[in-house]
Amino acid sequence: MKQLNVGILGLGTVGGGTYTVLKRNATEITRRTGVEINVVQVADRNLAHAKALATDADVTDDAFAVVNNPAVDVVVELIGGYTLSRELVLKAIANKKHVVTANKALIALHGNEIFAAAKANNVIVAFEAAVAGGIPIIKALREGLGANRIEWVAGIINGTTNFILTEMREKGLNFADVLGEAQRLGYAEADPTFDVEGVDAAHKLTIMSAIAFGMPMKFEQAYTEGITKLEQVDIKYAEELGYRVKLLGITKRTDKGVELRVHPTLIPEKRLVANVNGAMNAVVVKGDAVGPTLYYGAGAGAEPTASAVVADLMDVARLIDATNAQRVPYLAFQPEQVQDLVILPIDDVQSAYYLRLRASDKPGVLADVTKILGDRSISIDAMLQKEPDENETEADIVILTHITVEKNMNAAIAAIEALDAITAKVVRIRMEELAK
Ligand code: HSE
Hints:
Layout: E1 2-9, H1 13-24, H2 26-33, E2 35-43, H3 47-53, E3 58-60, H4 63-67, E4 74-77, H5 84-94, E5 98-101, H6 104-120, E6 125-126, H7 137-144, E7 150-156, H8 159-171, H9 175-184, H10 193-196, H11 199-213, E8 223-224, H12 232-240, E9 243-253, E10 258-268, E11 280-287, E12 291-298, H13 302-319, E13 350-360, H14 365-375, E14 380-385, E15 394-401, E16 404-405, H15 406-417, E17 427-431
Parallel strand pairs: 1-2, 1-4, 2-3, 4-5, 5-6, 8-10, 10-17
Antiparallel strand pairs: 7-9, 7-11, 9-10, 11-12, 13-15, 13-16, 13-17, 14-15
Helix pairs in contact: 1-13, 5-6, 6-11, 8-9, 14-15
This protein binds L-homoserine.
């Protein structure tokens, strides 16, 4: 029987899950691949914990011992971060070892360098677990949808923020009240600002964008806006208008360039993706031939993420003797066909908008606001005026607009905020139909 010898860097949540799934499903995995996958060495700083779990493997606290071990065919990088992990992955590649990683930050920031090194050394770098945990979205984008010209991808790709938004909507809580609970439940990244400010989602979106359109990783150019400023009242008004607020990663191919943006987004509640709740993830991909398709599942956790890591190991087991030309390209497109597409600055992105205005309750305010919008050819789709509470002299006005370009909306908002009757900054949330 053919053997594949694996070295694992990091035996934390995902590493532990990977070890467990490989052992529990060993027979089934070998039936599928015709290869025995053995974990021969494991590196973890916590030697006692690693020894207790990985009873059949050599255990070390020196990760470089694994990447330099001649007996190891494939290195599984599960330590996170992007400094030491970059060094280890590049060293493994230089040693002609294949690499499987769950590290979204590493691929989004250093993927271009890593894939160039991997190509030069004819090794595989697989990263299914880096995006949406157990959902096989990389496989779907690179292979299952390979016949399509992909037009856009939109996803709920951070479980922590989806959990927070779900709690805010269902329990009427504020952002700050729910963050602590998400952290206690263990969804959040080591640094929760990566979750709540949209950085984690931008890492994952960057990766999907690169393989959807065949372009390099462009994380630095992603527009990233998190959920920390989102107010409960806007979630409530959105619901009254038939929408849910989700933190979406959206990437779209347009005539002018590629949109690459993460921000809170109103989506119609009738869309399946609007009903993805709690810590679950979902990605919608629109291909020209297939139309919109939806992928749903657990975006984090030990065994869901291990499911993706092990599937990558199985691909390595099958393709280890192939040449790069016979394998699916790293970014789905042949390396010489990867195109340096332009990323649109957020000012040039087109969107529909939800606006909330706080206005003195006196005649003519609405006329002034609609004139400002009309003068800039911004068309109104729906409007909601809330009665001021007793003893209040100000009211909330909510306006949904049709699509316009962001810089046009910025100018309109500045003009609205300059009106005497407008007493607070205008709240703006982008909207997506996700229909076609
Ligand atoms: N912190 C991430 C999330 C974990 O909340 O989705 C998985 O990448």
